[in-house]
Amino acid sequence: MMTKDDxxxxxxxxxxxxxxxxxxxxxxxxxxxxxxxxxxVGMNAFPxxxxxxxxxxxxxxxxxxxxxxxxxxxxxAQTVPTDPCIYRFYEIVGVYGPTLKALIQxxxxxxxxxxxxxxxxxxxxxxxxxxxxxxxxxGKYLQYSAW
Amino acid sequence: MMTKDDxxxxxxxxxxxxxxxxxxxxxxxxxxxxxxxxxxVGMNAFPxxxxxxxxxxxxxxxxxxxxxxxxxxxxxAQTVPTDPCIYRFYEIVGVYGPTLKALIQxxxxxxxxxxxxxxxxxxxxxxxxxxxxxxxxxGKYLQYSAW
Amino acid sequence: MMTKDDxxxxxxxxxxxxxxxxxxxxxxxxxxxxxxxxxxVGMNAFPxxxxxxxxxxxxxxxxxxxxxxxxxxxxxAQTVPTDPCIYRFYEIVGVYGPTLKALIQxxxxxxxxxxxxxxxxxxxxxxxxxxxxxxxxxGKYLQYSAW
Amino acid sequence: MMTKDDxxxxxxxxxxxxxxxxxxxxxxxxxxxxxxxxxxVGMNAFPxxxxxxxxxxxxxxxxxxxxxxxxxxxxxAQTVPTDPCIYRFYEIVGVYGPTLKALIQxxxxxxxxxxxxxxxxxxxxxxxxxxxxxxxxxGKYLQYSAW
Amino acid sequence: MMTKDDxxxxxxxxxxxxxxxxxxxxxxxxxxxxxxxxxxVGMNAFPxxxxxxxxxxxxxxxxxxxxxxxxxxxxxAQTVPTDPCIYRFYEIVGVYGPTLKALIQxxxxxxxxxxxxxxxxxxxxxxxxxxxxxxxxxGKYLQYSAW
Amino acid sequence: MMTKDDxxxxxxxxxxxxxxxxxxxxxxxxxxxxxxxxxxVGMNAFPxxxxxxxxxxxxxxxxxxxxxxxxxxxxxAQTVPTDPCIYRFYEIVGVYGPTLKALIQxxxxxxxxxxxxxxxxxxxxxxxxxxxxxxxxxGKYLQYSAW
Amino acid sequence: MMTKDDxxxxxxxxxxxxxxxxxxxxxxxxxxxxxxxxxxVGMNAFPxxxxxxxxxxxxxxxxxxxxxxxxxxxxxAQTVPTDPCIYRFYEIVGVYGPTLKALIQxxxxxxxxxxxxxxxxxxxxxxxxxxxxxxxxxGKYLQYSAW
Amino acid sequence: MMTKDDxxxxxxxxxxxxxxxxxxxxxxxxxxxxxxxxxxVGMNAFPxxxxxxxxxxxxxxxxxxxxxxxxxxxxxAQTVPTDPCIYRFYEIVGVYGPTLKALIQxxxxxxxxxxxxxxxxxxxxxxxxxxxxxxxxxGKYLQYSAW
Amino acid sequence: MMTKDDxxxxxxxxxxxxxxxxxxxxxxxxxxxxxxxxxxVGMNAFPxxxxxxxxxxxxxxxxxxxxxxxxxxxxxAQTVPTDPCIYRFYEIVGVYGPTLKALIQxxxxxxxxxxxxxxxxxxxxxxxxxxxxxxxxxGKYLQYSAW
Amino acid sequence: MMTKDDxxxxxxxxxxxxxxxxxxxxxxxxxxxxxxxxxxVGMNAFPxxxxxxxxxxxxxxxxxxxxxxxxxxxxxAQTVPTDPCIYRFYEIVGVYGPTLKALIQxxxxxxxxxxxxxxxxxxxxxxxxxxxxxxxxxGKYLQYSAW
Lengths: 147, 147, 147, 147, 147, 147, 147, 147, 147, 147
Description:
Ten copies of one chain form a homodecamer. Chain A is of the alpha+beta class. Chain A contains six helices and two strands; from the N terminus they run H-H-H-H-H-H-E-E. In chain A, helix 2 (22-29) crosses helix 3.
């Protein structure tokens, strides 16, 4: 049975062969780069029409479209990530977590930012002292119930 | 010896007494709310002049200014945070970590976003379907050396 | 500075003295027993008016009302609970977690049950073979974004 | 030797081929959807007659019926689940565990809800503010012995 | 507020002063030694009448009887015990756990031995090659539901 | 090289084919059911003569007898078992461990029950309120040296 | 209630005051240095007569003798020791554990070295290339039962 | 590429075929049994001449000699060993670690026993009360630098 | 799809065949030995021209050059390394970590040494008391932002 | 009894009062800054004469000199450090550990760099692109025994 891991591997191979970037792939199917990469590696589900477009773009077998639009099980193996690029985000959550919580509560009340009704972008910002990575997250505010 | 924990407690008490918000405190000392909260709870060091302003604003003992401008040891006790508001950010790193890495490398090369030369904001974005939390992170791109 | 732990202890003492049950306390302040217990032990925030009512009911100091309505930090110390009564719920999540996920996705699509816009009840159901504990959870369905 | 994992895979393939939902499969063999899914993925044992019906319904090899009715070893690999849909239930146990315990003891005495003599349902409840997931658990109350 | 830990300490002191053994204490209040020790150190709740007898026997303050009959939260701090006497039992569960499971299922069906409707004894068995410790556990068989 | 895992699998297949129970297998080779199961799954070593009998009984290849009588390495993978039937025994050790220790020391002195010079039985005890699982462990008392 | 930790502290203070070495203390009470240190820090129980001698030697309160002869609970907090002197022994067990097991089984059969009926010495061995630490452990061989 | 694991397996097979003991193998190549076993299973590197002798003795392919004399990476998978024979040594380190440290420091100064410039023997010591396992470790004393 | 693990294995085989040292390989491609080894085993990315040189030097397939210049995911599996040679560096970080931090802050201000804009060398330093390993690390100082 | 933690606190207070840097303190007592800081915070033992000098320099009570020269137990609480400045060194060990091992073995043979016969310096190296932190470690090479 074709799995999300199988399809991710096919996509990586097609990407190496075609020389397409994630940004180009995303543009061609009309989705954002963050969501596109995430769904390609099996951490999100493409809307069926987008899965079809991707399959055509990269010449994958048709069954892959079905797999790409199934709900994934989002398992991440490392409790604390070791790759430095990913660890820095983990560190930011560790250091600034209580600050994010305090400011969200000050601005909204007792609640959280949703990680489900959520989107994110990554941008390169030119800067004479060295270009900067800009990450923007946006999630719906969810208020705790009291009942 | 007065510690950063002692001072954090004094600040929280003064904040409860005065009714000031983190945003107001930040405004009055001319720093951002994220940095202000973080340095107040002992996860960052205030520039000495800012520490002095804060101490005056909240009527803390003068020794507190010294403590607030010392380099902190950034210990966070929970490897995986349990508070739902903080956990959601941890989850985002777990789910989207490889995506952030892939897009940073596509846009910049082999490197990372710095968590040291770094700043962050939290904003409330009105939305008819429910207001949204916007978190913007900006960190200097650091290229891996090859030597 | 009076903390949520301090107030929880005052409430437990008042409860022992007055002989009130959680259900009676909840009834008198017009909240559900689950939410009432949870907010009393510091895992939820009472609406200010309810905090006032509780403080009057149990003759707590007025400052306690302020504390009871502040946003809590929901830290739970045991990654795997050891108390048998709590462990059984952990076990149910371990054994039936993939089943809950599969059925939610079948009935709703790619998303989750919110643990924030959420409520719960506990009921005793008479049964000739031995009475049963009934736990009902209700959470808003949240659909994953695709963007 | 055919294992529960082998059979689970056959079922998932047959399900994809036939287009049957878990609810339809459960209806056809006269079991609940929660139990049916759980036993199909190897976390419960079907009564032999039900295993036979399932094998016929999905055209599995006859040996699968034997496997489906054997007692499973309920191993779950993640101490803390990472999939957001499952994690939310873990979080509920962490946040509300002491509350569940306090209310069970108030209503019944010193004991627990059984996770063995236990059943569960998942329902979609329409709601103008967004439909809700309803999970109902029912387990026999078990009183601690004193001897 | 007097806690189970406070009372356990009072009992240990009274035991040292009076020179009574656990077996003698158990005999005098008409409970088994295993249950008596366990409830004295806060891992079980005495029936109220037994708590009263114990309080009289050891001349504890009357409030202790109330504490001794409250439902305990059974927290054990070490996931893997280090004391050799306790570790050996942990090792037996690790080595013989699958065997206990296989034989219970062979003799009863798909189910478990209850750890709630449960009792245990410890006996010294004379033996010319060295006396032996005999531990007898008895728990009600609980059959998994199928629904 | 034939391993204990290979042989365990052969035995499970032979058991399924022949329909023999563990108790019947044990009877036929004149060992107890607990030891027999444990040695078949690779957690104990059969005396060579018993290994020979087993190999004949189940028509295994002769090399299996050699493997069955080799000293095993007793690795158990889960620090905390997740299968409910096994977990309950873990829980008993967690809750009653200090009690077992206290009573062993009261009856014997400063020492432990051996888990090596050790045997165990599992019995079904009829009971009108529900049959009970009886587990009897017997281990040699070992006194700590003082030197 | 005087605890083993209290007494260990008294002994360390008396040792600092009197300038006695562990070896001298051991000699004066007629026990080995390893056992003496271990029992002084609360990891073993002195025979009552030896506890009395130690109490006299170091002028401790008489109650300390009772405490020193009680059975200890041997809790060690670090699963993996961090002190380099202790870690090296941990490393030896990790690297040579399977070797120790293989040679014990080759020389004795299927069994273990007891850590209870056990003694140990530490000696300084002069060596022109640098003196050496010699550690000798001796434990009774225990044969696994087969029953 | 032939690995140390591959060679270890060849040696175990040759050992089973030839019936040689570890002690005999060690004697024939003129190394100690502890070192011989350890290097055979990949936890130490044989001097090239000894690797050659071993390869001849057991009729292994010549490439194995190269592999046997390469520096190993000493990975041990279990932080806390579960095999009872190995666990007992872990337990000894946990219980007696601080004692070993105290006595080494008393006899030598501030330093440790090397686990690198190190050797070990295992001996069977006849004893009328039951033969004993004797383990002797010898490591060079290493003094901490002060600079 | 050829992976970094595949290429690392090819390099190790070529290295064994050719008898080249890491230092010689590094010299021939004009990179340092530390960086060369690290990029060969998949923990760093070679500049494309260097990857080409290496592929020619060791007669690897041309696709390997592409793989060697891709950004790696730096996963290290052991949270605490067990190999003694690597563990000693871990221990140095544990023991001297707070010292490194204090001295960096004293010399530079509130910041860190970069592990990204970073290089390292390993040298053999002759010494009559025994040659010494010299490790030199150099990383760019990064100052914490205050904003 | 005065402990190393007590003395560390006294030193930090004296340092804040006198305004001395670690480098100045080290210079005045003729030790290196790394060793001085490390021994002041309780991770190394000062030679008695140096402890005396330090006590005089900072006007500490005389008993502190005794404490500063006692062998410390080097416990570090965080298995994975969270402070970014310390974490980066941990990350370097994780990423470059196998490289350090490979190069040490290539230059010396099968052995390790001692972390006991060891010294370290931290230097600020001016650099037009941003000053750099230089860390130099030197440890005696220790060859594995073969016996």
